[in-house]
Amino acid sequence: QITEALLKERDKQAKWNGIPLLLQKLYEHSHPNSDFSQCQSILKEISPLLSMEAMAFVTEDRKAAQNSTFPNTYTFDLFGGVDLLVEILMRPTLITQKKKQKISDDLIKDCLSILYNTCICTEGVTRRLAERNDFVLFLFTLMTNKKTFLQTATLIEDILGVKKEMIQLDDIPNLASLVSSFDQQQLANFCRILAVTISELDTGSDDKHTLLAKNAQQKKNLGPSRAEINQATLLNIPGFIERLCKLATRKVSETTGTSSFLQELEEWYTWLDNALVLDALMRVANEEAEQSSTESSDESGLANTSTRTQLPQSMKIMHEIMYKLEVLYVLCVLLMGRQRNQVHKMIAEFKLIPGLNNLFDKLIWRKHSASALVLHGHNQNCDCSPDITLKIQFLRLLQSFSDHHENKYLLLNSQELNELSAISHKANIPEVDAVVNTDRSLVCDGKRGLLTRLLQVMKKEPAESSFRFWQARAVESFLRGTTSYADQMFLLKRGLLEHILYCIVDSECKSRDVLQSYFDLLGELMKFNIDAFKRFNKYINTDEKFQIFLNQINSSLVDSNMLVRCITLSLDRFENQSDAKVAEVLSECRLLSYMSQMSMRMSFLFRLINIIHVQTLTQENVSCLNTSLVILMLARRKEKLPFYLRTLQQMEYTEKYPGFILNNFHSLLRFWQQHYLNKDKDSTCLENSSCISFTYWKETVSILLSPDRTSPCAIVSYIDEAYMDIDRDFSEE
Q1: In a domain, 98, yes or no
Q2: Residues forming beta bridges with residue 618, ordered by sequence position
Q3: How many domains is the chain built from?
Q4: Using one digit for the tens of pLDDT, what is the confidence trace for 104-132?
């Protein structure tokens, strides 16, 4: 509506660079009956003005960029450019005539590029686009076209990143045929987009949310969440999981020919955000070339080739790593979702695990990991290089794959499975059903299975490496569930116990996360296993070493309580056995002797109850409550419960603060009932890990909570009337 003369006049002063005039022309040439032929040349004029800014934004330090203004993209949006482009793109969907208008691929590409650049530079544009549900769903339909696929995917990813409401994959027109039209490369890129649609919005800090808040949230959300519905939608797409497994396990040599690959890189180069990736790739390629020319001709036979012929191979590897990252992430989320068993079955059938096993040395844990590959503005130690992220994603997948699932034995090869059977026979114990039932045609092949490969790299990992946490978690999840002597011995024979103790005691590990994962792993490895305690004693063979070990345990009981629970349970079982070997270890082992002192058990119990409160319980520290319960259940079995409660009361008096432990414990147990007696709650974990029936857990809690002040096993009998403070209700404050 503003006259051309006025726009021209203001243009120089306002430094608009002619954008409003160009937009006016674009508007005139894009009326409903136009053929769009002129639009393209106008966009070609606008495009460079915006892409320069976007380039600057991505390559500059992001912080600095946010402070600077981006006049061109701002002007473009101010004069309605964004809405106009959306209208041009969506025009064909509005026309009902027989003769549908066809927009050329190049025009679509230009529109998408300009939109993307504006989103990058101008605050609020992405959010505005995200609010237009029709546009977001329309973008998915553009993905069927190979030529505009990358541009569309990148824009969708940006938009979904800021969208408040998660989209429903069900709403995407013809989703199944869209996915089946993708080649493997497109499917991998599509996984980047899917990641946002199947992950719960705040899962990142799951351990940190208080259980009170989570329980309240669950009461509100009766049906499945959008993410869960989307997961189900994906699983219903024919062949989807099979294709993901193929992508995850294909070798670099199987990827498409170099020519199309380089052509795609050119596409990428014009396509902004990936300029970073390209930069990174070039650096890796040069490094690799230098490396291979300094080494003598190694088995890869790359030593005498020039950098030029080598570039594609190196880039192919990086490319493949980036694809696998996305795919493994999606598989991992699906493995942790509601349809877990269905996903497990499919993943086993499509041989994901043996496939990953074959890639382990060459790709996942390759020697010349490009540790120098760091994207702009990041330092070397941050975990965002694709190489590092792939390793972590791979370890997370192993963890969710073997956690409480009998398919975990697919991580071994046939010989290793035979070894498990032999361990059981030798010890005269029945074989685990899951081992017997494992389908041998689906297990790992090669000299080693994935689990043993993981142990090998774990032992070589430098002390301060961020992988240690994930490695320990992955191995621990293999041991979780009902304790299996054969599984423990399999790992003990490979020196795992000594390795963990070396890390905890000799290298005096300081990282809380790593320590916690090592204590948890040690607990699973030693539970009820007399040979493990014997080995422990052989390694921790001086008082000085034992003292360091105790200091590490006591430095944070939240981190070490699962190990304390394992020692307590094991001691109880050993004391009830009449075996000469057990008796010998019981008398010699420092750890068991230490825990058999009543004063030590009481000290642990007192501190475990003292570090948690109902208001601060989380997924991470609720284990302290269960460990304190284990100590008291074992006391109840020996009819010592009143003695323990009286001792807690005396300890309170010594601390000059009567009632503060027992009142807190009373509230914690009431919360325990609310939390674990919920019909959706899975109590098998508590049973499996303690070998104490859930009925006994429930009975013990109700005896402790009995309101009868004359009962010798009720907590209230040990709190003086004056200090009683147990009737408060929990609220979610």
Answers
A1: yes
A2: 210
A3: 2
A4: 888 888 888 888 877 877 778 889 999 99
